[in-house]
Target: HEPACAM family member 2
Amino acid sequence: MGQDAFMESVSSTVGVFQCKIYLLLLGACSGLKVVVPSHTVHGIRGQALYLPVHYGFHTLASDIQIIWLFERPHTMPKYLLGSVNKSVVPDLEYQHKFTMMPPNASLLINPLQFTDEGNYIVKVNVHGNGTLSASQKIQVTVDDPVTKPVVQTQPSSGAVEYVGNMTLTCLVEEGTRLVYQWLKNGRPVHPRSTNSSSPQNNTLHIAPVTREDIGNYSCLVKNPVSEVESDTIMPTIYYGPYGLRVNSDKGLKVGEVFTVDIGEAVLFDCSADSYPPNTYSWIQRTDNTTYVIKHGPHLEVASEKVAQKTADYVCCAYNNVTGRQDETRFTVIITSVGLEKLPQKGKSLSPLASITGISLFLIISMCLLLLWKKYQPYKVIKQKLEGRPETDYRKARTFSGHEDALDDFGIYEFVAFPDASGVPRVGFPCG
Ligand SMILES: *[C@@H]1O[C@H](CO)[C@@H](O)[C@H](O)[C@H]1NC(C)=O
Ligand SMILES: *[C@@H]1O[C@H](CO)[C@@H](O)[C@H](O)[C@H]1NC(C)=O
Ligand SMILES: *[C@@H]1O[C@H](CO)[C@@H](O)[C@H](O)[C@H]1NC(C)=O
Ligand SMILES: *[C@@H]1O[C@H](CO)[C@@H](O)[C@H](O)[C@H]1NC(C)=O
Ligand SMILES: *[C@@H]1O[C@H](CO)[C@@H](O)[C@H](O)[C@H]1NC(C)=O
Ligand SMILES: *[C@@H]1O[C@H](CO)[C@@H](O)[C@H](O)[C@H]1NC(C)=O
Ligand SMILES: *[C@@H]1O[C@H](CO)[C@@H](O)[C@H](O)[C@H]1NC(C)=O
Ligand SMILES: *[C@@H]1O[C@H](CO)[C@@H](O)[C@H](O)[C@H]1NC(C)=O
Model:
């Protein structure tokens, strides 16, 4: 052990210096140093393996002897070949397999077989004024390289979230001493409560599957001489619908209420995350009755065609594989904001009202003039508000449902409409 550790710690160049230190400390040093770059060498079956060895000494030498021995656990060391000066004496049993070119002590093994796995011992003897001796041991492993792995999923048709399980199996045709690792989106898969691996890690079991398990999976297989990753596969996981939303191209959305200007046609769009894609249906609610008005993700509502000022709709998303559905209710309010506040044309007003009106008009005009001077942009907006075309106003009146638009004057606040029945509907059938 002491000898080995010492040999490992010295490099070929500083070794002599260190040896001198050891010589002083221990009072004995061979003056001969044998160094191997690596004490473990991984070889590929069928190929040549080169075991490099370096040695050096500082003494006059008449003979240099190099001996290679091979040992396997629990067996006697076997003589492979040896040399004195430049002449090699092989063991006749292995003479075509091992090659050495003395004084170079490195050994070439060709071809390498599984039976060549074990420890190789090199011993160097230098004979001069006395005999110096040193040895090193190299562990050699022999492996077949890994062929590209293939990942199989079971079931191949996919699994439904929270219901189905999935097993990924990594298959490798050739290779020895395989170590498997699973990668998801390029990062190692860490064991979670929902997944487990076989002892060799060549299968990954996910039970039950969830939406979070969706990703690009691959299997990385390593051994001492190679490392190959499979193609990525994306297991099919059916899920959803999630995050059902209704949006419109126009109009103002506050919570579940869309405020739409009269005369506009509005396109509503229903979307939810789901695999496979949802089927959508649109349901209109009138009092206690509901009926399906359209299938598909879009619904166009022409505000002129809406008889009332408000209309309730439901968008229903259904995933025909998971068998799950979600629905969202929303209210459309047809509005004519600001128009109903204008005085009605052609309606007779009392003289007092006229005078008050004219006075107010003058005061407001003065104020506006002052304001205009100070903040010119304000006026532009004001003009826009007051200068709405009369046709717009007439339209608004037709739909207001009142004889006098002044009845509608006030501050409006729209809130989500409660369900008419007051009971939340469970399992409403999506048409
Ligand atoms: C090895 O070489 C040395 C000098 O080069 C020589 O003195 C010695 O006799 C040789 N030994 C053998 C066994 O040939
Ligand atoms: C030993 O021989 C190999 C080639 O067979 C060569 O690469 C290596 O450098 C040699 N070592 C020494 C110490 O000459
Ligand atoms: C041989 O070694 C002895 C003691 O180890 C020493 O006295 C002697 O000088 C050495 N001879 C030569 C030629 O190095
Ligand atoms: C999924 O795995 C769980 C636990 O391993 C098991 O109880 C369940 O029956 C499996 N489901 C299917 C559909 O195989
Ligand atoms: C299997 O994988 C786990 C975690 O990735 C790892 O800790 C374990 O050593 C692996 N087992 C084998 C036999 O490679
Ligand atoms: C999986 O790979 C595909 C194609 O390479 C890519 O479009 C997709 O975004 C990847 N998915 C993830 C979750 O990285
Ligand atoms: C709606 O149904 C409730 C009971 O389910 C009933 O009391 C109410 O009169 C119905 N309203 C209309 C307008 O049909
Ligand atoms: C689910 O709906 C799609 C159309 O969105 C259809 O192509 C598919 O066949 C349906 N699958 C099942 C199992 O009903």
In short: Residues 314 and 388 are 34 Å apart (CA to CA). Residues 1-28, 338-349, 377-429 have pLDDT under 50 and may be disordered.
